[in-house]
């Protein structure tokens, strides 16, 4: 390539290992949900494998970056790769939000005798559509005793995530100005917000499961609640790990005010996770 060089990374085993680890975790999760605790060790093994792959993959990319192997072409490749990755995440959550909207907008009214397929009301003639669905039409399924108030723990988590996006922006601006101390300080605050969010959601899950009867078996409301908030919580955990890795790199002086796309990629991911939570707070907790 005239006018410069094009860096081709060496063959890497991490992509295939990441796919296998993710598959193992999904198999374990599905087994856990369907067959009980027998799937829990498989899920945990998959999760640990994913964390290990992330650690070693980060290590290799950091080493290549610090060796000065990446040029402007690689920078563009990284940016496009991260953009497409976030787009795939948008589609991932769009599927679950779509399921939620389909149930609320079409399936429940049909079961109540409304709309073009209102004949389905013959299945359960006494069913009355409502959301949250506290009394599933099938008597063999018990709905939740109560639903969580959006103005308590969910509101706290909303404040935490929105504030964390602000502190992360402060950190990024400080980094662009060459203020490593400011970037480090604001990034520490952001990571603490992420850890606190995870802890608060753990408390929320405990309360929902043990005191509200809100479980995965509590009808369509329970399953959609835990699928949406659970996968989001997993993304917060991953995002917090990424930001913690960026924190270590800032501390070691790996970034300057012009070359810090790894930091930007982590910020993009975190802001995406924040945006998804706003949608969850509105459509899962409030309305």
Portion in helices = over 70%
CATH top level label of the largest domain: Mainly Alpha
Biggest sheet, in brief?
none
Number of helices: 7
Quick one: CATH superfamily of the largest domain? Cytochrome c oxidase, subunit III, four-helix bundle
CATH topology of the largest domain: Four Helix Bundle (Hemerythrin (Met), subunit A)
**CATH-scheme architecture of the largest domain:** Up-down Bundle
Identify low-pLDDT runs: none
Overall spatial form? elongated
Ends distance: 56 Å
| Total number of beta strands | 0
Report the mean per-residue pLDDT as an integer: 92
* Rg value: 22 Å
Q: Percent of residues in beta strands?
A: under 5%
Order of helices and strands: HHHHHHH
Summarize this structure as a short list of keywords or feature phrases.
Four Helix Bundle (Hemerythrin (Met), subunit A), elongated, 287 residues, 0% strand, mainly alpha
What does this structure look like?
The structure is a single chain. By secondary structure, the chain is mainly alpha-helical. The protein folds into two domains: 57 residues; 211 residues, Cytochrome c oxidase, subunit III, four-helix bundle (Four Helix Bundle (Hemerythrin (Met), subunit A), Up-down Bundle), CATH 1.20.120.80. 71% of the residues lie in helices and 0% in strands. The chain has seven helices and no strands. Helix 1 packs antiparallel against helix 2, helix 3 packs parallel to helix 7 and helix 4 packs antiparallel against helix 5. The longest helix is centred in the N-terminal third of the chain and has 40 residues. The protein is elongated and about 70 Å long.
